[in-house]
Amino acid sequence: MQKKLLIGGAFVLWGLGANPSARLYAQQYARLEKPSVTTEVQPRKAMNAIAPQAQKVSGSVKDEKGENLPGVSVLVKGTQQGTSTDASGKYQLTVPNEKSTLVFSFVGYEKQEIVVGDRKEINVSMNPDASSLDEVVVIGYGAVRKKDLTGSVVQLKGEELKEVPTANVLEATQGKIAGADITRSSGQAGARVNISIRGNRSIGGNNSPLIIVDGIQYSNLEDINSNDIETMDILKDASSTAIYGSRGANGVILITTKKGRTGKPDISFNAYTGISKVTMYPKAMDINGFRDFKREAWRAAGIWNSPADDPKIFANVAEYQALQNGQWIDYQDELIHDGVQQDYQLGLRAGNDRLKSYVSVDYFNEKGILKQDELKRYTGRINVDYSLNDWMNIGLNTQLTYYDQSVRRDPLNQANKITPLGTLYDVNGNFNYIMIDGTSANPLSDEQPNAYKNSVLTTRILTNGYVELTPFKGFTARSTVGVNLASSRNGIYASPKSIDRTLTGKSLSSYGANNGRSINWENVLTYQGKFGQHSLSLTGIVSYLSNSSDNVSATGVNQLLPSQLFYSLGSNSEEIKINSGYSKSNLLSFAGRLNYSFRDRYLLTLTAREDGSSKLAAGNQWTFFPSAAFAWRIIEEDFMPETNVLTDLKVRASYGVAGNDPSGPYATQTTLTRIAFGYDDVAAPAYTFSRNVGNAALGWELSKTQNFGLDFGLFKGRFNGTVDYYDTRTSNLLLDRGLPPTTGVTTVKQNIGKTRNRGVEVTLGTTNVRTNNFNWTSSLTFTKNKEEITELVTGGDDIGNGWFIGQPISVFYDYEKLGVWQTGEVDAAAAILPSQKPGEIKVRDQNGDGKIDAVNDRVILGNPRPKWSGGFDNNFKIRGFDINVFLYARVGQMIDADRYAKFDQQGIGNSTAGLDYWTPENPTNAYPRPNKNGGLKYLSTLGYQNGTFARIRNISLAYNVPAKLLGTKVIRGLRIYATGKNLFTFTKLNYDPERGGSENFPMTKLYVFGINLSL
Description:
Distance between the termini: 50 Å
Radius of gyration: 32 Å
Number of helices: 13
Helix content: under 10%
Structural class: mainly beta
């Protein structure tokens, strides 16, 4: 009777909700793991019944070849007390009593546990671990052993994520995840990091992966400090992601944060500080370059013949005087400074058999390379798990993040194109807000006192609580409720002396506030059982996700009290405007999964999920997402010969369906928009239909993926690899379709079009050298993806939107530049229509009809997607030193770079320094001849460049201070390190191609010094 009540209570509590954490699933799967090797040389001595006595134990550790093994971790089981073997493989420590168990562990070797007994010396020989196949890997709503995976999943440990110091942990994974394309958007403080997994599938929908933190959906990964992360698991194929249904179409990133643990409290302090510098950013022309360029432009127009004509071309008297006096401004030198990045994190892990907790606080500060560009992030995290009894666990994970950000309006675009002549200050020492030409604002205006302020304050809280019941062996019922609260305020004040308001003579104030709320309720039932040679795991899921947000914004012109900035919009005397909005969406889901294993070699996973979205039209709100995967561990078969060469071999195949709903709600509805209206001269409120008309038949965007994989291991796990081939076909694209203007509206979102992504991913891990004093391990990733549009509503190419059948979603469609017309091609240049002359850009006549026109002569020149990308990570251990060298490459991409297209054809403003432009004396094919009269054609072709690059992403040198040098029992470990990030980039360009082509906020390299302290 008592048993029935417990089970009934479990089902009642299950209705409360959510996603099980990886740690608890790992506990469930721990019983499936191979037992660790236990060695007892002698029987244990009888326990001292009066008082256990501490005793010293020493010994040495060797590998399978009998060679000394340094750096092996030796811990007293159940505590944090321990040490590491020295360069000779020797260790020494004091254990509490003879009942203590020593745990020996080292990367690449099987863990060993040895009971101390009455021995004073314990020597150990460690055996290689065949690729750590018994490690637990987190998957959606659960975890499995690595050897039992049927899908394509990559796991990164927390230690790997800390190798590259960065504000966003995603940036630290660049090149380490096969199939993931990761780039930083700019060098701005706190700049976002872009990621796509296995290409872009959707044209008008969302292409970002789903992010799950401790079982709860969360979209702001930049909030999480890498020191708080235990593991990051990336789900790539449909077999892995289909359990998330509509949310998993673009891949899933699962973050498991650190939890408390039993034993002595573990206190850690991690800190670094560093300097960032601009990397590979071309200069603008100096006074001589600007003068010569302007002279050539006027010479081409027949105005300038010699320096005696300079007064003609520098008609502004002040400009001419500045030229004569050699007065010019290097705006980049004045604007760009060294940035600073620093991070300080304190963590505490503690616990006993019932209560375990992890507490962390963090402060991150980044000052960008421009003044007033600064980000401060304050983070606090508390993770608590409590076991009420043998069958009930409860827990709470909470993170609070607060941002204080000063946002700088980037002035470099203006600074790189205005005349460099003049001075920053007048003869009286007053700052020149208007430049020498009388029409341009000084690019440094915003840096002056009380000229400009853009302040963003953001607070986000992510919290989830769970109840987990295990009423009988193998069965778990878990309910989790997660709440994500976000609020932000953005205030901007631009004075009449700021860059944007200089020519208006009036200030602008604006204030915006946003509030977001997300509730994620996850209910999971899991049963695991083993029956003879059969093992299975059944999972049932009910999920509810609700998102809502509201916002308000207001602006005003001519702030009467400038000191009030944006805080008192009522003090603005003109153009006060107010706006507000609200949105809400819900998603309800039911899912089930079966994991089945026969004889640990035939593995089957079946998944089914039904999603219902409020964003879609009635009758189309629900859809079904199935998937199936099979894996065969060939290495376990009896016919496989026993050999040290091949130590693991598994093949995988999967097929599944995932999808997308619209990125925002209300695409099915036609909304109203307010317009200016009046009767006679009297204003009156009036509304019209939005230009985006609603679609009452809008449905799901669906992606069907097949995946074939091979996992293998060689030479006792010293060489491991994974190869995957995938093919994803997406249909019913959520696409904004243009409508005839005569309809009164412009666009409607419809399910039209198809795309396809297919490619190959390779991941290799090797132990290259392993000796007493030197270890070298490497990992290599390779990604090749082909992204293409296969169908559009037009039946062919949509040139207006830049979409082409058989091509990626984003391409560069333009004229093909052949060079510059030369003096020997006068007749040919004159014969082409429209006619040209030497010194002008020469493009290809694609159809040979003797004329250049937009319909027949523009072609696809390239696209911003790489043909392939990869990373090569190397770790060296030399006695107490650790060295990491990480290389990253992105090959075959094209960029449209602002700096290469910065060509002021009339010589009025400035251009990029060092341009090889055409003159009669310099018949180059790089850039055309400038001409004061303008009229040059095809200037858009100048920016297209081969963006291939390889870079040394990270170089780190660390020293692990030996315990004997610390001279204290308080400090358990001290690691001192220096890191260089983005130090060297190998490319044909003199511009950093990673971020694509924009010239604002140049990319940076970073020099860092830090420590890791354990107490």
